[in-house]
Amino acid sequence: MPGPMSLIIIAIIALLVFGPKKLPEIGKAFGSSLREFKNATKGLVEDDDVKKVEDKKAEIVEVKKEEVK
User: Fold this and answer.
1) SS3 3
2) What is the pTM of this model?
3) Per-residue pLDDT averaged across 9-29, rounded?
4) % helix / strand / coil in the chain, to the nearest 5?
5) What is the pLDDT of residue 42?
């Protein structure tokens, strides 16, 4: 993980390259992109969890059917 000095240097370079007016817009765009990515991956994880639960239920039903026989 970069140290605080590295982050300060990166921030200064970004300020010089993009300027003080453009930097907040870039930060906002980056934040919204990150939020969208997080929500999309959250949906994938939830889909996997639902599939695991359904598979487990099907497995339990099969075991119960075998016990009845």
Assistant:
1) coil
2) 0.48
3) 89
4) 90, 0, 10
5) 78
